[in-house]
Write a structure and sequence with these properties.
Two copies of one chain form a homodimer. Chain A is built from nine helices and three strands. In chain A, α2 runs antiparallel to α3.
Chain lengths: 268, 268
């Protein structure tokens, strides 16, 4: 974003501030849950839960930094009649934390999906390689648009970034489709829902990305972008991890794994 | 480095700042993963994973300090025409954290390699002693060059530091070569890759070390040094640990250890 002072009302400023704090709490809560819930699932799905924990742990760290950065970007306050306005210096607010976070967490989210399927090592590696490369390309192409100050540049890079995104959808829907058909009954339904959750939450990011160019005003755009990203992050990381847990738990109870849940629990 | 103010563009300053933050996150993420993944491998390889966790945990701590030090070394900002420049005081930026980190972590990385081989206690101790002494010598000889301000001194100590480095390579390739030949099929391939990863990442450090004397300009040299070290550290510690995990997991599944993975779990 360009160096500029944006005037935020106290309500707008505090909405984002409080939502960031809530996001830290939600991610930390999810971290504790995923770490603790590992012994509720069969041994072969524990890696998926561990990766879920890593994802929300990394996100908690980054939201702590983002929260600090939001607080530090206030250049001062001013009274506009009766209303207190926050002079927010967008150049001081560090957007890059979010991209650093996504670089670590987005490939791991895709690893979670593959890990919970319980494929052969060979197949698993192939899918993880493809999806990781596509995820990194998607993020790397989005970043130049995010830091651009003009609409054209933002739209150009946003469009380029959509190409690997569509490829990821192709892999999840078409290539992984067969693997999902082989899953036991109820897990199949949950895996379909997981893909839909991913589509719905990831579809939220482009909307937040475009918020600043939709002509809804600089202050509203800034607030919409940050509220949108925070809600999308909670859903796509903590919510997604909960669905992964739910699938792993279902497969454990249905005995779709290599061992009985009782055996796995007894082995602890 | 000599006491001097180096002028960095906002882009250069922020690149290093954000990369340091990303490194903290990556190391902390790897820490959680290695601690959590211990029950995925046979009991005899758990020490290797625990040591991996210690390495990235120590690195996360040091990168937190380095990150703070980088932020604190800015003496002020100045406008050069349209561009904001950061006045960076290199005397305030503490390089020694990195050497403190390496003194702890580099010998431990070599312990990881030996530990995952599953040798006899006797042989293991011999290799660890040799490799630890060489690693400490390599770092102790590199440090005087790192803090020197003139090219000649930097090159002299850099060259001396290479001698124990070459000895480490000799031990890993020649002396450990036989031990690697005795490993089960797929683990052998992974162990060869592990050595190559070590060579590739450790080969990166001398390049970063020499960046300030390559005549690429003081600001660019400073940025190149720090970007290079951070990327090398992530690869050589978190990436290396992931390969150790992969080898331990493969040996566990192939039953190349003392027991079945189920037996190992039952032993919990």
């Amino acid at each position: 974003m360009s160096e500029a002072i944006v005037e935020l009302t106290a309500g707008q400023y505090n909405l984002v501030y409080n939502l960031f704090s809530l996001t830290i709490a939600a991610m930390a809560a999810a971290f504790v849950f995923f770490i603790g819930a590992r012994d509720q699932v069969d041994k072969k799905y524990r890696k998926a839960l561990l990766v879920s924990a890593v994802v929300v742990g990394v996100a908690a760290y980054h939201y702590f930094r983002i929260f600090q950065s939001w607080g530090g970007a206030v250049a001062g306050t001013e009274m506009a009649g009766e209303t207190m306005m926050y002079m927010f210096n967008t150049a001081e607010f560090n957007d890059a934390y979010r991209y650093a976070d996504w670089l670590v967490t987005v490939p791991l989210l895709l690893v979670e999906v593959v890990a919970v399927l319980g494929l052969t090592k060979e197949k698993e590696r192939g899918f993880i390689a493809k999806l990781t490369i596509a995820a990194v390309a998607m993020l790397a192409l989005g970043y130049p648009g995010e830091i651009a100050s003009d609409t054209g540049t933002r739209l150009l890079w946003g469009t380029l970034s959509s190409i690997p995104f569509v490829y990821i959808l192709y892999v999840l829907w078409i290539e992984l489709g067969d693997a999902i058909k082989d899953q036991p009954g109820h897990a199949q339904v949950l895996l379909r829902n997981l893909r839909l959750l991913l589509l719905a939450t990831w579809g939220f990011y482009p909307i937040a990305y475009l918020a600043p160019v939709m002509g809804i005003g600089e202050a509203t755009g800034l607030v919409a972008l940050n509220v949108g990203y925070a809600i999308a992050d909670i859903t796509a990381k903590a919510g997604f991890g909960l669905m992964i847990y739910s699938i792993a738990r279902t497969k454990t109870l249905e005995g779709g794994g290599s061992g009985q849940p009782q055996a796995a629990a007894a082995a602890e």
